[in-house]
Design goal:
The chain has 855 residues and is α+β, with helices and mostly antiparallel strands. The chain has four domains: 4-53 and 124-213, Calcium-transporting ATPase, cytoplasmic transduction domain A; 287-304 and 644-854, Calcium-transporting ATPase, transmembrane domain (Up-down Bundle); 312-337 and 505-634, Rossmann fold (3-Layer(aba) Sandwich), CATH 3.40.50; 347-481, Calcium-transporting ATPase, cytoplasmic domain N (3-Layer(aba) Sandwich), CATH 3.40.1110.10. Helix content is 50%, strand content 16%. The strands form four sheets. Strands 10-23-22-21-11-18-20-19 form an eight-stranded mixed sheet, with helices on both faces. Strands 3, 4, 5, 6, 7, 8 and 9 form a seven-stranded antiparallel sheet that branches. It has a six-stranded antiparallel sheet with strand order 12-17-16-15-14-13, sandwiched between helices. Helix 18 (559-566) links the parallel strand 19 and strand 20 (571-573). Helix 4 crosses helix 10. It is elongated, with a radius of gyration of 37 Å. Residues 1-25 are annotated as: Disordered.
Amino acid sequence: MNEQARGVESTEVSLNGDDGAERDRLPEVSDFGLNAAEIMARRSAGQTNEVKTQTSRSLWTIIRENVFTLFNVIILVAMVMVLLAGQWKDAVFGLVIIVNAGIGILTELKAKHTLDKLSILVRSQSLVRREGRNVQVDHDAIVLDDLLWVRSGEQVPADGTVVRTWGLELDESMLTGEARTVRKAEGAEIYSGSTAVSGLALVRVTAVGDHGYAAKLTAQAKVYKKTVSDLNQGINTILKVMTVLVVPLCVLLILSQLHAVGGWSNAVATGDWRDAIVSSVSGVVGMIPEGLVLLTSLNFAVAAMRLARHDTLVQEMESVETLARVDALNLDKTGTITDGGIVFDRLEMLAEGLAANDDHGIRSETARRDAVSERDAAQALFDLSNEENPNGTGKAVLQALTAQGYHPSAVRERIGFSSARKWSAIVAQDRSVWYMGAPEVILSAVAADGADVLKKVNEYANQGHRVLLLARVPGVVPDGFADEPTLSLAAVPVALMLCSEHIRDDAGKTLAWFRDQGVRCRVISGDNPVTVGAIASKVGLTGTRRPVVMDARELPQDTKELAKVLEHVDVLGRVLPEQKKAIVQALHLGGHVVAMTGDGVNDALALKEADLGIAMGNAAPATKAVAQVVLVDSRFSHLPDVVARGRQVMANMERVASLFLVKTVYSALISLGVVLTFVPFPYLPRHITYIGALTIGIPAFILALAPNTRRYVPGFLGRVVRFSLPGGIAIALSVLLTEWVVPSVLGLDLRQPEQLSSIRRLCAIVVFTLGILVLARVARPLNSWRGGLVALFGLVGVLGMFIPLVEHFFALSLPTSAEGWLVLAIVLLCSVVIFFVTMAAERAVSAIAAARRSR
């Protein structure tokens, strides 16, 4: 900045008050600033710029909430009971606690680490004026009422009021989303987090530390918010229901098993209490779908790794499935639909007949003169843009015109662009003046009638262009023109310079995909609503329909009214950060599942409030920190991949959840049957571990990773329950009938360990066989690799019973006599009949219910 040109005396001022310190050129001021006593008093009162950095969740809180869950407690107690009974082989189910808790702790520790690092402010040193001297201090050492120097290139460290200014201009886009710089006059408020792009100012600090604007944004963004997972909610509901049943059933099972071995005294005397405990645990463990909780976490993790290979970072695993449920997607214009770059489109000459041709295709003399004028205008535009530090528009012009063969020419004098003036100027070698700037500003100062020009400007603006006017004073100007920058009345409008934001190549295709999927997309931006609306039209936000555009300053304050208005609005401009958050809240009130994209700090609060926050890779660190998903390479076209992965998780987990819940249903029903009839439990925990691994656990993991693009339909839990009940009832009925009928027919005494073991092996084989049939039902269609998967696990389960180690560990074996095979065949045949009859009954009931709904 040229202080002498502005009439401001400059002196060398020591930053640290000693001769060896770094020196800086600053205006000489008489302001004294705070003295030592005042500084000490403010420090004692805690009025410093220190900001708390901790999140609301401690390490102990994270560990406690992942380890001491109701699910883990039930499994742990069951495992301890089995170990106390001396049957460690039946306690292997307890390992799932360690794995599941470990995944949860690591995930949340990662989130805590990210949030703890979150900060909008760059903690560099600042220059303050104290006791008549300029002193450099750390960010945290700034106190309330300090006189703070804000210099070009520095970030404002604390809120304040401008006391004196020498052309200070701030970039507030980090806070407001508005890309244009703002000139600050004396008395104007400035906010921490903004950046000085030019000029200088002396500012009195009015808010420090947690009271500053940037700190408040950060604090709200740092609040820990668990991603709501429809899948996890459904699973937790199952766990809660089963927990209510487990406790009383467990007590009743223990009592019934003690009765089955001859009562408490006999159980203690003979040691049969151990078998009673293990039998009771069999029922309890079977009712808890422990593998489902683990598989859900693993499935989320695998999906996150797959997305990472496509430059999509998933910071919270549960968010993988959230976008599958989203029906409202709020898009920030800059960084999402556009890449933030400016493109020079063309120079639109205002002279008539520029493109006129005669009948022979030869340009007329007038047209040739205009063409020369066009080249002159383009050269002048190049020179006007060729400042020492051109802004984004200037860089775009220089890049485009350089490609067309233009080069810098000599300039006598220059007036740099200022956002306060809204124009720049040069004096060419022929002493003519060229102006470039905001059309309405230049036209308001010249004598020529600009009504027609303004009409064209508005037309281009409505098409999404950024429009600047090029004007020329054809006469000769005296030296010293730049000393007093003014607009000449003799300036003549020559051309309109049309620029536009660069729209991402993939934006239109991606938006069309979301429309086809039934997701309502809205553009929410801090920029001019007309410009944003034009870009939305150009990119096909609403297809063939013209998008409905609204200025956010006209939005109602009431959330209910806002929700009603938003149903009919596609584009919102001039949106403040608080409004973005309120918009998300209003959409929630309307029953929508909301995703929000963004790249600026002004988007952070809305991303935090949304069901799913999506940040671009070039976003501000604070924005990426609060987002659940980060598109690392900032490609909007990755969002369909995220949606597809979320749908895969939801659709496949619905399949496998049905598998696990079948086990829960038949375990609960078998436990109830055992309690009511006082028979020994029909299988051991190790039996269900073996059967569950081959018919549920391992196949479920494979099925969960299979391709699946089915759209998510609300009602996950209801569908899973309806699917699981018939299979669970069929298995429970088959097992109970086997234990009730077979001993009576064969004359077996279940108090004899060997005979009880044979019945338990028989019941376990029944469960395995019907488990394979349930797996086949879940894996449909079977005319692909899915059929081979079912056959493979059926074969592995049978072959495993011939392996001595497996047979001994899991206490499972096939009959060794002809009579045993005959009994097994009859029992399996009856069980299969019961299974298919139950399935047929379920289909009949569903058909009747559907017919009633259709009436």
